[in-house]
Specification:
The structure is a homodimer. In chain A, 40% of the residues lie in helices and 19% in strands. Chain A has one domain: CofD-like domains (Rossmann fold, 3-Layer(aba) Sandwich). In chain A, α1 links the parallel β1 and β2. By secondary structure, the first copy, chain A, is an alpha/beta fold.
């Protein structure tokens, strides 16, 4: 089965790890993975820090799928240290609110060296993924685009609106500054990275994991041509609600949703994505058991909807969420 | 007293530290340093490594003068670790022969960030020096030029001559590949960094420490205009022989000297620099007690020469070497 996942960071990474566990369990003992999972990652959070290129979502995917993520934290490497960044602070450089672990820094340095040598981000990502044998685990990790696209947040400043890099808004200000809008700096020059459109065209199913619908999946869909390819694919497109019980499962997605005028409910997010048959990008939606009223409302509107426990507290739980999402695919194709 | 030192790495750094100790001892209890020492550092060994800018000689000077150098090693930070570079090796990136310590990396990252922001190398160096309070210690550290100049070494390859970066030749190959010549890549576009020519013009004395005369001091003198400024200064120019007992004190300077057809003797290096009155750059020369015959031969040629124990085994020893070099200055001015 060929599966494409459009992913942000922690939520998408945990979902994809569950997906791989589920698919792998289907084909025990096979020498080559019987499935082919392509993850198209948001790169809108990428930033230059101390002269090195940091790609938060790609790194989280890399570490989570590679089995070396800091489990409790959800991002970064396990057994991490901060010797370099502690010393950097003594030079008065950079941002004291951004954690830069020593092991994580190694990834950024390798990436930066290759980028400087002229390797595109997609090739760089493939080299990083080779160390963690992502191919052997049946998954291919692609950036949404090779070109830099950086999400900025317009907020109210003392002297009128000002733009912050998304990471500054998200990590430093904990999304507490009310966002007026999100701007994808550089997106007009971006094209889907090599392999992205082909993967969407050849997919048996496309999954939208419970990533942030605005600044993760929304950013991926903002790359010119990518949304069109999603709309055009013959594969069913199934999404998992990132809103559970009227609140984001993780992070501060509610602040992002509010900025674009979308309520923080499982139903509102589904309507924001929209049904493909009505000009949107989704065919079916998986909501949490805490949101049965949302499921009922969506069903009344004709949506194919499944209800399940969607909290990915561990890998088996994430595998079950992925299994339900995959099970929705035939229903989605049938048109609900 | 205004002193200018044209320096390479370890030898120049230890000499300058001794010079500061000597000058400081002359003016105990003064609130501001009574002296003004400007070090013009070779940047020909600089390189990009993992996307960060490494300046070996500037760093050695920074750490030695700042009091944080790894004393036994002569370069790098004390209490260093290699967590990042060990992890980088697992990505198969870069050069396994180049040590990149975690604390050292912090310096490179700070430098790279500022360079990327458009700060010239001289300004970057001043910012790095501020952390270690070099100004408070009465010393100003300048790169020879803001523009990148990289020393490459032409050696014989299987398919004819090939160029290596100096650091690759020096550190990886331990200078074992016979050099045909040294090439200063980029030197034609370099100009002395702001402050260098002014310091030479205003100097009371200029010192050439026992640095490599070919790839350290020689590289500094290769910056267009710098040699002319040295020739033109009213200050005496006193050098300390890097050759003791017919061998380089440290490093593999003999390989460099051989490549340019200079014998590894204290007298031959002096003649290579040449006397200013005869078109060279030096006025006087300090040789080690093991090289009395060299001293005698140079004196017979009219050189002002002093003989002393020049091995800088500790700071007091380096201070004595600097004191003797300074004492040579009036003799040099008198024309020998």
């Amino acid at each position: 089965m060929r599966v494409v996942v459009l992913s942000g960071g922690v939520g998408g990474a945990r979902f994809t790890r569950g997906l791989l566990a589920h698919l792998g369990a289907d084909a025990p003992g096979s020498r080559a993975p019987a499935h082919e999972v392509t993850v198209v990652a948001n790169t809108g959070d990428d930033l230059w820090l101390h002269g090195v290129r940091v790609c938060p979502d790609l790194d989280t995917l890399l570490y989570t799928l590679g089995g070396v993520v800091h489990e409790e934290q959800g991002w970064g490497r396990r057994e991490e240290s901060t010797r370099v960044s502690t010393d950097l602070a003594a030079y008065g450089v950079g941002w004291d609110w951004f954690t830069l672990g020593d092991l994580d820094l190694s990834t950024h340095l390798a990436r930066t060296q290759w980028l400087r040598e002229g390797v595109p981000l997609q090739g760089v990502t493939a080299r990083l993924a080779a160390r963690w044998d992502l191919a052997g685990r049946g998954v291919r990790l692609l950036p949404m685009a090779d070109e830099p696209v950086e999400t900025h947040v317009e907020v109210d400043g003392d002297e009128g609106p000002r733009l912050l890099h998304f990471e500054e808004w998200w990590v430093r200000h904990r999304a507490a500054l009310r966002p007026r809008r999100f701007v994808q700096v550089g997106v007009e020059d971006a094209v889907p990275a090599p392999g992205v459109l082909e993967a969407l065209a050849a997919a048996d199913v496309v999954l939208l994991p419970p990533s942030n619908p605005v600044v993760s999946v929304g950013t991926v869909l903002g790359v010119p041509g990518l949304r069109d390819a999603l709309v055009a694919t013959a594969a069913p497109v199934v999404g998992v609600s990132p809103v559970v019980g009227g609140a984001p499962v993780r992070g501060m997605a509610d602040a992002c949703l509010a900025a674009i005028g979308v309520e923080t409910t499982a139903a509102a997010v589904a309507r924001h994505y929209g049904r493909r048959s009505l000009g949107g990008v989704l065919d079916a939606w998986l909501v949490d058991g805490r949101d049965r009223p949302d499921a009922a409302a969506l069903r009344a509107e004709g949506w194919p909807v499944a209800v399940a426990d969607t909290l990915m507290v561990d890998v088996p739980a994430a595998a079950r969420v992925a299994a339900v999402a995959l099970a929705l695919a035939p229903l989605a194709l049938a048109g609900g």
